[in-house]
């Protein structure tokens, strides 16, 4: 065995050990939060993330991304948005524990709860029609509530999600999401086949469209070049199904507004086929509109732009 192979195996083993320790610490923190009342746990974790976030190495990327997206904002405004994002991340992490209690929306109830829904008429129409469609969203607010809401209206949705790099956390997360959200397809090789199969069987699919995709179509986001996954417009073109934007907005008092917008009509080419490149840009435009409305509720943690790679 060559020394290069030995070094590679040693690094791989060390990485798995690090992942194991990170997972154990994360699970311990979540177990401790579970002992607290739901509202207290979310408040504590939000404040902890808001305090610790600026000391993490990833914070530099957050500030850089915010500065690229909002060059007109001052340093103090960027810092405020960055702290707000960490607070949002803290709430999101703790909300995984309480998803079953958090989603208290009842379409037949007149009493307000933690969750309110805008676009209820669209949900009901889609349920009565019983036809497949594609929902898309971005990493805004608690986006995990959206497939639960769709299931509340009797819609069978297979959701595409990107598992964490840590395999131990990914396994635990997949198990909890499957319990709460139904069908899930990890975003890796073969994911497109899973979504296509769901549509072919008459079901609907949900896709997060604001992630970097190395082999994606070059388009723009906040006026800067990005690579966008063409999967959604390709599926819409292949199966001729409507596309609906959906998002979650955090409200004061630990409440949420889930919004299902009207059908997004994708642009077509001279052959009346869905134009993949122009559709990818349209998806970015929709997500950018959402992020501009609530910038602190979007994940600024990743290298989204090509010139920031």
UniProtKB/TrEMBL annotation:
GO terms for biological process: glycolipid biosynthetic process. Keywords: Acyltransferase, Cell inner membrane, Cell membrane, Membrane, Transferase. This is Lipid A biosynthesis lauroyl acyltransferase. One of its GO terms (cellular component) is plasma membrane. It is found in: Cell inner membrane. It holds the Pfam family Lip_A_acyltrans. NCBIfam families: PRK06553.1. Its main location: membrane. One of its GO terms (molecular function) is acyltransferase activity. It comes from Ahrensia marina.
């Amino acid at each position: 065995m060559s020394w290069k192979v030995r070094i590679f195996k040693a690094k791989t083993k060390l990485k798995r050990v690090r992942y194991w320790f990170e997972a154990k610490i994360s699970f311990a923190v979540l177990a401790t939060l579970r002992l607290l009342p739901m509202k207290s746990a979310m408040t504590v974790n939000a404040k902890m993330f808001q305090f610790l976030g600026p000391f993490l190495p990833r914070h530099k990327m957050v500030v850089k991304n915010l500065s690229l997206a909002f060059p007109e904002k001052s340093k103090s405004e960027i810092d405020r948005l960055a702290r707000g994002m960490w607070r949002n991340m803290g709430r999101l992490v703790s909300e995984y524990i309480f998803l079953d209690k958090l989603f208290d929306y009842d379409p037949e109830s007149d009493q307000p709860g933690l969750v309110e829904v805008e676009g209820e008429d669209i949900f009901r129409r889609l349920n009565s029609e019983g036809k497949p469609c594609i929902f898309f969203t971005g990493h805004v607010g608690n986006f995990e509530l959206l497939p639960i809401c769709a299931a509340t209206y009797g819609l069978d949705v297979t959701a595409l999600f990107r598992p964490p790099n840590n395999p131990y956390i990914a396994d635990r997360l997949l198990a909890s999401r499957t319990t709460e959200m139904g069908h899930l397809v990890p975003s890796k090789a073969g994911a497109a086949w899973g979504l296509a199969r769901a549509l072919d069987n008459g079901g609907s699919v949900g896709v997060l469209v604001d992630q970097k995709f190395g082999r994606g179509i070059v388009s723009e986001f906040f006026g800067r070049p990005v690579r966008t996954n063409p999967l959604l417009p390709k599926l819409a073109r292949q199966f001729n199904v409507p596309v609906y934007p959906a998002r979650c907005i955090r409200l004061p008092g630990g409440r949420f507004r889930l919004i299902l917008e009207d059908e997004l009509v994708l642009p077509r080419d001279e052959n009346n086929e869905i134009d993949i490149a122009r559709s990818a840009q349209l998806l970015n435009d929709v997500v950018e509109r959402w992020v501009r409305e609530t910038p602190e509720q979007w994940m600024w943690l990743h290298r989204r732009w090509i010139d920031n790679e």
